[in-house]
Amino acid sequence: MEEDGFTLVTNKKRKLKKAKFIPHKGYSPHDLAAGFSKEELKASVEKCYQELMNSPFIQEIDLIVDKLKELNPKSIVCYALGKIDNLYCQAPKYQLAMLLHIKYRLKIEKALVFDPVLTEVELNAIQGFKIERILVNEEGRRLVEERTLFIIFHGEKFLFENLINTNRFCKQNIIILGNDLKHVLENQLSAGINSVQILNSFYRETIFDSCVLQWF
């Protein structure tokens, strides 16, 4: 038995090199990072933005934009965006591209983002699009005094619960673009909600596979 707790089994007829024991360090979301620079990440998001703008799916997005013009949100908050520096998942970049399109079309100046998996480089790239970072993990507990669009694609159930409970006396200020709340929340929390389903015609089907605009 070696000092590091690893036992090496050898053949008596020949001498083997000592095996090296490498302890398991556990999984981290940053293991999937490609290590791109701020400029490379911005360029990659811009490419996704142009691809989205040139796709037939943009017509479906603009129907949602027209409804948002009626609802008139004054700011945008994005939770659970995901990593934009990811080797295996491109969805966050396309979802960020949709956020940017909505921001530009509605001329909304204030937009904020939070996801604990985002690195400093990723946040700097996102800030390059005039989107501010939220400095603390609010876990969805943001009280809003004016109509606010919350973009939460594939968010955890607790985010929606905390958001609605925190604003239970001013639910009319909440607009949510993302998961269908009727499939996520208990009936009492989703009661009285209005919704418009986005017809997903984007060729990358799973990116916007559950996208509903909802408001109280």
UniProtKB/TrEMBL annotation:
<protein>
    <submittedName>
        <fullName>SRR1-like protein isoform X1</fullName>
    </submittedName>
</protein>
<comment type="similarity">
    <text>Belongs to the SRR1 family.</text>
</comment>
<dbReference type="GO" id="GO:0005737">
    <property type="term" value="C:cytoplasm"/>
</dbReference>
<dbReference type="InterPro" id="IPR012942">
    <property type="entry name" value="SRR1-like"/>
</dbReference>
<feature type="domain" description="SRR1-like">
    <location>
        <begin position="67"/>
        <end position="194"/>
    </location>
</feature>
<dbReference type="GO" id="GO:0005634">
    <property type="term" value="C:nucleus"/>
</dbReference>
<dbReference type="InterPro" id="IPR040044">
    <property type="entry name" value="SRR1L"/>
</dbReference>
<dbReference type="Pfam" id="PF07985">
    <property type="entry name" value="SRR1"/>
</dbReference>
